[in-house]
Every structure is written in structure tokens, then in C-alpha cells.
From TrEMBL, chain A:
Domain ABC transporter, chain residue ranges per copy: 6-225
Top-level taxonomic group: Bacteria
GO function terms (MF aspect): ATP binding; ATP hydrolysis activity
Entry similarity comment: Belongs to the ABC transporter superfamily.
GO terms under cellular component: plasma membrane
PANTHER family per the UniProt record, alphabetical: CELL DIVISION ATP-BINDING PROTEIN FTSE, LIPOPROTEIN-RELEASING SYSTEM ATP-BINDING PROTEIN LOLD
Protein name: ABC transport system ATP-binding protein
Keyword ATP-binding: yes
Keyword terms: ATP-binding, Nucleotide-binding, Transport
InterPro entries: AAA+_ATPase (IPR003593), ABC_transporter-like_ATP-bd (IPR003439), MacB-like_ATP-bd (IPR017911), P-loop_NTPase (IPR027417)
TrEMBL record, chain B:
Signal peptide bounds: none
Keywords: Cell membrane, Membrane, Transmembrane, Transmembrane helix
Protein name: ABC transport system permease protein
Subcellular localization: Cell membrane
Single annotated GO MF: transmembrane transporter activity
Chief location category: membrane
Transmembrane segments: 325-345, 365-387, 457-480
Organism: Terribacillus saccharophilus
PANTHER family: ABC TRANSPORTER PERMEASE PROTEIN (PTHR30572:SF9), MEMBRANE COMPONENT OF TRANSPORTER-RELATED (PTHR30572)
Classification via Pfam families: FtsX, MacB_PCD
Entry membrane topology: Multi-pass membrane protein
Biased composition (Low complexity): 406-417
């Protein structure tokens, strides 16, 4: 088996009370070409866990390694910049920009260069069903499903190996949800990415390769075959 | 350089906010520019006034002090009060002339004399309604003698006649030959008035004989080296006293005037007028003079800068007011802009969170904020340099109008208090000073030539940039301290 892309090493985390941590001594490996889902009741710590995986927050104990290197040592900002794409329930697009500008900005920030960038972005957006006209209008005028597609396309265009998503289908209807999950599955399997998605929908969890159930600070791994 | 693009997109998307900031910034810039421009115009005007007026300081006997001293000494003896003044020694005069800020200096010795081998110009004998008591104001030359002396001529001893009051005023002008020069000291030469010369068929190169009015045995032969023309009409008293007739004034080297006055006066002068390089330096000059060995219990230094003060007073008020405008508007402007930027901070926080999650560097986030406001600042500076000129003109001249009106009022009231309030005016005597001030209250600089210069715009640019960066940095700092996780997860 190949080396893990992301490895939690004895990670512990708490917000205020060190004696009563959210979780402790977590050791989980994440691999490329795999679609992970994280489930658990509300307040069980899914978002917190995903923030650690995505380099938005620092582990209180232990360390997280990316490709064998401590993300603490490389700096969380650099880690996010170089390796991670983050997708949230609220899409996290910049409201005053168009879909196209959102993606172009993210590509500029992560220094991802392609030939003929405009064509490339429009082509990628077209793949998820966003027309050129829609791509050139303010993102806020798009529907929730369309905005999430833009966010996913942004992650795709930035071409990072690690993609973390916090309930990306939370605001979407069933049909749209399915299409979005399909996009994530494709990212993992066709683009050889490591996708970690938080969801409370068991149907979606069932479609992933591995489901991590989080409850009372313990993690249970379920392999789907 | 994507943050520049983002700044542009953001400004374009939020047109309303951009426009509001631009309007506020432009108003700030117009005020700051007006303040700066008015300040520099005021400075230029008062400098011009200073250069034109110069300013001089007169060293002369402190008559009040001398009088008091003599009265206390003479109260023992029963004789009539006699006034004798101590003339200024040349050593004293020169030690002060050696100080900084002295552009040039001139001596003044006045004496009275009678014409021996020519006729003075007779005054008309028409009846005159001025009372005899007024004639107590005897000419300067006879103060040393006390009492009244009848004489044909007033003899003005100078170092350089060009710098004597009536010549520097433009009242008198050399029409033939030359004036008295420094090198004439010790020689018996004279410059006489044209009318006197014509009446007596005198020309440059001729000689005249005069005798001292106080001692007929003291006579002098003077060679005429120059002829001048005076436009002075003379005073009322000139009707009664021939030596007060302006045509009967002759200019000689101060040494010649001293000879007429008697041996006691050798190497002395009555008063010295020091021309300053700049009226601004008068105070420094007086302070330095007071440190010399000259006895200021007997002598006094009087600044002749009343006219200058009167002229530049309103200007200086305008300048300091303009300076306050610059300070006030700059600070208030920075605060207002920072507040506007802060009002939109919630929205910006989210944007910053998104960009930071993608991995944007913090300095580039601050760079975007700063760029947005700096672009506005540049446009505002540009706009205000177009609109600033007329506004600064209206504002500056309005301010000056108020100031001149206010100062004219105070001048008038102080004048109504009588000559005492007029202040010393040097050789001209207090009466002269008051009437001058009365007749020329409008001498004050009454309009400013306000022009926005590149220098003003450059300074404005600097201030505008500083305001912009402060307005952008204050909120940036609070945003940059936030963690992207908190920004993004709180949103849900
Ligand atoms: N910033 C915070 N400060 C303190 N407690 C927090 C903070 N964020 C989350 N928590 C707490 O930590 C627990 C886990 O929260 P979270 O990771 O958001 O759970 P989930 O995403 O599974 O709903 C909750 O009990 C929540 O109240
Ligand atoms: Mg959550």
C-alpha cells in the first residue's frame, strides 16, 4: 500500500476545557483516489475535525502530516495555499465577483497556471452545467446548486490533491445533491484526489469509499465495498 | 498582482460605496488643498510685503529717560529746566552696525544754519491760522539747544543721502550731480535743493558759505556736489519759519553738520537708522544689540515696522487659520473614512475568510484594501486639484476680508485713543505716525494671489495617501487577527 496523503498522529483537540477534549489520540490516514465521508450528530465535532484536516485550525495535541511533512512546520497558510481546497455549506464564494472571477482569483492565489485560462475556466464550468452567460454574472444571482458547482469547479481548477468539504449539499435539494456528490466522486476517482466530506445524509455516506462515524470523541471507520 | 484586480472588481461591483468614498475623499482633499494653498499664498504675500517694506531700527536718545534724569538732577539748582542730550558716539553706532541682519545703516545729525553768501527761499508771509504754541515742535536739530532759534536753513548730516528718509521715501530725488556718499565724511560738500540753486544761480561745483545758527563765528565753505528736487510741500510752520521750508534743507556729510553744532559733537551722531535685511529679523537684531556695551539707559532702539505689522497681521491670521483647517480636516477625514471602511467590515471579513482559506497571503489582503482606498485617493486628489483652485480663492479671500475688516476696526479704535497709542514711529515723530496710519488703513494686504502649485498638490498627495493608508490599515489589522476558521464557520 502507498503512503497516506494526510495522516493524523495522536491528534487531540478541545475548545475551552482541556480535561474534557472534543477528541483525543486520533490516528487516521487519508489516501488519494479515495472519497471519505464523516458523519455524526450535530455538535459531535465534524466541522472541527475537518478544519484540522483542511489546515484552518491547529491541533492542540499531536501533529498532522501531509505527504510525510508536518503541516504545523510548513505553516497552515502555506499548507492551504499549496495543497488544500476547502468547500463549505455556504459555498464561500466572493459575493461581488462573477463565477469566472471567483475561480480566476483562486487560481491566481494558488499560482495555478493553464494555457488560455478563460477558455479553461469556462469549459470547466460548462462541464458542471454553468453556461458562459452565467459564468459572467455576479455569483449571488446564481441558485444555491449553481453556486456550489462553482465552488467545486474552483477546487477542481486549483488542482489540489486534498479537497475538504463541510456539508456541501446541506442547502440543496435531493436531485441537486446527487449531482454534486457525483462531482466529488469523480474528483476522487478520475482526478486521483483525496476528498473528505462531512455529511449527515446516510445515503450520501453510503456512496463514499470510507465513512468515519464520529460520536463522543471516538471515530469508527466503515469501508464500503 | 491578483489583489490589484480584486480591488478593481470590488470597487466596480460596489459602485455606491466607491462613489460615497470618492465624494468624501474629494471634499477632504479640497479643504486640505485650500488650506495648503492659502497658507503658501499667505506666506508668499507676507514675504513680498517684508521685502518691499524691509524694516528699519532707529538708535536714538531715550528722551523720556534723559528728561527724567535731568529733572531729578536739576531740582536742586534753581535754573530753568535745560535739556541737553547725549549724542551717540560713532563707536557705539558702529558696534551695532556690525551685528547680523544689518543691510545698511545711515547716520543723522541735524543742525540749523544761516546762509552767508546766498539767499534762502523766503517763506510767504501770509497770515497763518495755526497757533503759536504749535511752533514748540521745533525741528530735531535744535532740540539740543532748547528754546527757539531762528535760522535760514536746515542742515541734514548723513552718511549716505540716498538713505536719508526723504530720499528713500521718494520725496526727494537727485537731479544733477550726486548725493552725499560715505566717502564724503570729513569733507565739506553739500547737496542743495533745485529751487534754492536756481534762485541763486548755483550749479554743481560752486561753493556756498553758511554759518552756524547757534554760533555765528562757526562758518563753513561747502562745495555743491549735487542738486536735488523735492516734492514735499512742507508743513504749516514752513510759512513762519524759513528753515522749515523744504527748499531750504541742505544735505551734508554728518561730520560737516557736527562742525556746525560745535566741538562737543565731534565723532557723534544724533541717531542711526539700521536697515534690516528682513523685517522678520527686527526682534533678533534688537535682542543682539541689547547685549552690546551700548548704554540703553540713555539710548533706545525703535523698530519702524508698524506698517509691516499692519500689513501682515491679517495675513498671518489667515495663514494660521488655514493651517488649522489642514490639521482638522486631515484628522476628521481620516476618522470618517476609517469609519466607512469599518462599516463594511462584516462583509469584508467573510471575503477575507474565503481568500485566506484558499491560502492568500495576509499582506496581499491588506494590499487589496489599501489599493481600493488609494485608487480613490488618487482620483480625489486629481479632482480636487481641478476644483481646488477656485474654491481656495473664494475661501482664502473671504477669510482675508474678514481679517482685514476686523483689523481695520481695531486699528481705528487704537488710533482714537490718541497719539500715545500710536506707538513709536522713529524719526518721524508720533504725530506723523498717527496721520500715516489714519490715511492708509487699507495698506494691509487685501487680496491673496492664490494659485494651486505642484508643490501644494504634492503635499496634498502625501497627506491623502497617509489618510488612505490609515483608513485602510485600521480595519485591516482587526481582520488579519481573525482566524479563517472562525470567519467561515460562524457564517453558517
Ligand atoms: N469556536 C468555538 N468555541 C467553543 N466551542 C466551540 C466552537 N466551535 C464549536 N464549538 C463546540 O465544539 C463542538 C463541536 O462543534 P462542531 O465541530 O461545529 O460540530 P459539528 O460540526 O459536528 O456540528 C460543539 O459542542 C460546539 O458547541
Ligand atoms: Mg458542522
Amino acid at each position: 500500500m502507498t503512503a497516506p496523503l494526510l495522516a493524523f498522529k495522536n491528534v487531540g483537540y478541545w475548545y475551552t476545557d482541556k480535561q474534557n477534549p472534543l477528541f483525543q489520540s486520533v490516528n487516521i490516514d487519508f489516501y488519494k483516489n479515495t472519497f471519505y465521508t464523516i458523519t455524526g450528530t450535530s455538535g459531535s465535532g465534524k466541522t472541527t475535525f475537518l478544519s484540522l484536516a483542511g489546515g484552518l485550525d491547529r491541533a492542540k495535541e499531536g501533529d498532522i502530516e501531509y505527504d510525510g511533512k508536518s503541516i504545523r512546520k510548513m505553516g497552515l497558510g502555506n499548507f492551504r495555499h499549496d495543497y488544500v481546497s476547502i468547500i463549505f455549506q455556504s459555498y464561500n464564494l466572493i459575493p461581488y465577483m462573477t463565477a469566472y472571477q471567483n475561480i480566476a482569483s483562486a487560481m491566481a492565489i494558488t499560482s495555478k497556471k493553464v494555457e488560455n485560462q478563460e477558455d479553461y475556466i469556462l469549459k470547466m464550468l460548462a462541464k458542471v452545467g454553468i453556461s458562459e452567460e452565467q459564468a459572467k454574472q455576479r455569483v449571488l444571482t446564481l441558485s444555491g446548486g449553481q453556486q456550489q458547482r462553482v465552488a467545486i469547479t474552483r477546487a477542481f481548477c486549483c488542482d489540489n490533491d486534498l479537497i475538504v468539504a463541510d456539508e456541501p449539499t446541506g442547502n440543496l435539494d435531493d436531485k441537486t445533491s446527487k449531482e454534486i456528490v457525483k462531482l466529488f466522486t469523480d474528483l476522487a476517482h478520475q482526478e486521483n484526489k483525496c476528498v473528505i466530506m462531512v455529511t449527515h445524509d446516510p445515503q450520501i455516506a453510503a456512496q463514499s469509499d470510507v465513512t468515519i462515524q464520529l460520536s463522543n470523541g471516538s471515530f469508527r471507520m466503515l469501508q464500503h465495498v | 498582482m491578483n489583489f490589484l484586480k480584486r480591488a478593481f472588481w470590488s470597487m466596480k461591483a460596489k459602485k455606491g460605496k466607491t462613489l460615497l468614498q470618492l465624494v468624501i475623499f474629494t471634499v477632504i482633499c479640497v479643504f486640505v488643498l485650500s488650506g495648503l494653498t492659502i497658507q503658501s499664498a499667505a506666506k508668499a504675500s507676507s514675504e513680498l510685503a517684508r521685502q518691499e517694506l524691509g524694516g528699519s531700527v532707529t538708535l536714538q536718545v531715550d528722551r523720556e529717560a534723559a528728561m527724567e534724569k535731568q529733572q531729578s538732577e536739576q531740582s536742586e539748582s534753581d535754573g530753568p529746566p535745560q535739556f541737553t542730550s547725549t549724542p551717540i558716539s560713532l563707536d557705539d553706532a558702529e558696534s551695532i552696525a556690525a551685528l547680523d541682519h544689518v543691510k545698511s545703516y545711515n547716520y543723522s545729525v541735524s543742525a540749523s544754519a544761516n546762509a552767508e553768501d546766498f539767499d534762502n527761499i523766503e517763506s510767504s508771509t501770509s497770515t497763518d491760522d495755526s497757533s503759536d504754541t504749535e511752533s514748540d515742535q521745533a525741528p530735531g536739530g535744535d532740540q539740543g539747544r532748547g528754546g527757539m532759534v531762528q535760522a535760514d536753513l536746515t542742515v541734514n548730516g548723513t552718511l549716505t543721502s540716498d538713505e536719508a528718509e526723504s530720499f528713500s521715501d521718494g520725496e526727494a530725488e537727485i537731479v544733477d550731480g550726486r548725493g552725499i556718499e560715505e566717502s564724503d565724511a570729513g569733507s565739506n560738500v553739500a547737496v542743495i535743493e533745485q529751487t534754492l540753486a536756481e534762485e541763486n544761480d548755483l550749479e554743481v561745483g560752486d561753493t556756498i558759505n553758511i554759518s552756524s545758527a547757534s554760533d555765528e563765528d562757526t562758518t563753513q565753505e561747502l562745495e555743491i556736489v549735487g542738486i536735488y528736487e523735492t516734492s514735499s510741500a512742507g508743513s504749516d510752520q514752513a510759512m513762519n519759519f524759513s528753515f522749515l521750508n523744504p527748499y531750504n534743507t541742505i544735505y551734508v556729510p554728518y561730520t560737516a553738520a557736527n562742525t556746525l553744532k560745535g566741538e562737543d559733537y565731534t565723532d557723534t551722531v544724533e541717531s542711526v537708522t539700521y536697515q534690516m535685511d528682513d523685517a522678520e529679523n527686527i526682534d533678533a537684531f534688537i535682542a543682539a544689540a541689547e547685549k552690546t556695551d551700548v548704554d540703553f539707559d540713555v539710548y533706545q532702539l525703535d523698530a519702524n515696522d508698524d506698517l509691516y505689522q499692519q500689513m501682515v497681521g491679517p495675513i498671518e491670521n489667515v495663514a494660521s487659520f488655514a493651517k488649522n483647517i489642514v490639521y482638522l480636516v486631515t484628522i476628521a477625514g481620516a476618522v470618517i473614512l476609517a469609519l466607512i471602511v469599518m462599516l463594511s467590515i462584516r462583509e469584508r471579513k467573510y471575503e477575507m475568510g474565503v481568500l485566506m482559506a484558499i491560502g492568500e497571503k495576509k499582506w496581499k489582503l491588506a494590499g487589496q484594501f489599501i489599493t481600493e482606498i488609494v485608487v480613490i485617493a488618487i482620483v480625489a486628489v486629481g479632482l480636487s486639484s481641478i476644483f481646488g483652485n477656485p474654491i481656495a480663492n473664494v475661501l482664502g479671500n473671504q477669510l482675508l476680508d474678514q481679517q482685514t475688516t476686523a483689523s481695520a476696526e481695531t486699528t481705528t479704535t487704537s488710533m482714537q485713543q490718541g497719539p500715545g497709542g500710536g506707538g513709536p514711529m522713529g524719526g518721524g515723530g508720533p504725530g506723523q505716525a498717527v496721520s500715516d496710519a489714519f490715511s492708509q488703513p487699507s495698506e494691509a494686504i487685501s487680496s491673496l494671489n492664490i494659485n494651486v502649485t505642484w508643490e501644494n498638490i504634492l503635499i496634498l498627495g502625501g497627506i491623502g495617501l497617509a489618510v488612505a493608508i490609515i483608513a485602510a490599515l485600521i480595519p485591516s489589522i482587526s481582520i488579519l487577527r481573525l482566524q479563517p476558521k472562525n470567519i467561515l464557520t460562524k457564517q453558517e
